[in-house]
């Protein structure tokens, strides 16, 4: 127990001398790094615009309210497209994520030395790049439209789903697998009756969870031209039609809240 | 022997279906198929365009084998440094703001009015996506990393406060009560009773959020909020796939390094 000395009396202290010194050094480095970062940001900022910001914000607010409610008739198709992008993207991603997850899990991979690193690389690289960047790339390759959005969402979701799924596979109860093996089951039968039933709840949970995230992401994919309601958003922003922008933002907010509610309900029902 | 067992004796075993009621099972399946057909019919894919694009796709994949770090090295360096600076500053500010909000959003620490206010802040921050916040902030504060920094800080608050508040709510009451029984003030109670219990989780979440913030900072440039996104967008627009591949490889490497680092730190604090 670290004890300090105050006028001859022993007083409890939380840290020893060296501990508190190293703490201070750590804090000092952290503060120095932050100060440097802040200096860089403020150097790249036009402060006139920042001081002007409250006026601009108020100006935008007065322009954006009230929302142009009758514009909602034109939003039906974009919303349908958005939901399609999220759903189809999730379905494709799940189909691709299942084999990747089985190849990446330590207990089911055919070769821990050769195949597993490749599967892990697929997971990391698809996960670390945002779906907007995938959309940007796919638009350059296959042209703008809903299809590019579906593929972008699918690619981005592979890593996420496969990572959660392979962790679930690694955590399965091995005695069940052994029991199936003992009956003389083939490799595929072990898979179907020993492993799959154990990971099915996790799989369903992951699917719904990712679908919810994908609804969020697909609402903004249109900003780069990949279809959905974001297309309307960027068109309205480009012509500074603020009443339309505020209506679209409200619709997006509603879509996000509803999808979160649906996913919470479904997950509650499954698990 | 009961009749249920009698009925299935001597027959081959079949896997029980996931949904017991047959009509519900078939209805769900039919509805799903109908939705898929409807969705397929409304997505008009220009297959000729896709086929044309396959050549460019091949070029892009090949670009990954020979990424070009050199010819735009200045732009890449500037963008990466700006992204990292935005990430670090936004994480620090976001974490600093989200700790008091997390305390306010924990029902066992805060009174009801404070709790509701803090939960409201968290809900707003979580419902708005980064990119939409970035568009609005760029419109208000002008182009540059300040808008990106504010966006990431705002997004950090929702994420971190929610998870931290849940951790505070599930903490061990006994320790906190022991501190309170020794006559501690409120601030001492938080500092010695609550903080040591949630510190490992806070550090782990902070590292995770740093990682997310870096990934998000890569796209903020698309709407003019600073960072590597602007460089990446330009390189796609100019069909400079080798430069784009170089940037993507750098992003993947930094994310991997951050994930590795946060794994080590989380293993040490827990």
UniProtKB/TrEMBL annotation, chain A:
Residue ranges the record marks as coiled coil: none
InterPro entries the record matches: MetI-like, MetI-like_sf, PhnE/PtxC
Residue stretches spanning the membrane: 21-41, 85-105, 132-155, 190-209, 247-264
Subcellular location: Cell membrane
Signal peptide: none
Domain ABC transmembrane type-1: 79-263
Membrane topology of this protein: Multi-pass membrane protein
Keywords, ordered alphabetically: Cell membrane, Membrane, Transmembrane, Transmembrane helix, Transport
Principal location listed in the UniProt entry: membrane
NCBIfam families: PhnE
Family: Belongs to the binding-protein-dependent transport system permease family.
PANTHER family: ABC TRANSPORT SYSTEM PERMEASE PROTEIN P69, PHOSPHONATES TRANSPORT SYSTEM PERMEASE PROTEIN
Protein name: Phosphonate ABC transporter, permease protein PhnE
Organism classification: Bacteria, Pseudomonadati, Pseudomonadota, Alphaproteobacteria, Rhodobacterales
Gene from which this protein is expressed: phnE
UniProtKB/TrEMBL annotation, chain B:
KW Membrane (keyword) present: yes
Source organism of this protein record: Sedimentitalea xiamensis
NCBIfam families: PhnE (TIGR01097)
Source domain of life: Bacteria
Entry keyword Protease: no
Subcellular location: Cell membrane
Family: Belongs to the binding-protein-dependent transport system permease family.
Pfam families: BPD_transp_1 (PF00528)
Gene: phnE
Keywords: Cell membrane, Membrane, Transmembrane, Transmembrane helix, Transport
Protein name: Phosphonate ABC transporter, permease protein PhnE
Gene3D superfamilies assigned: MetI-like
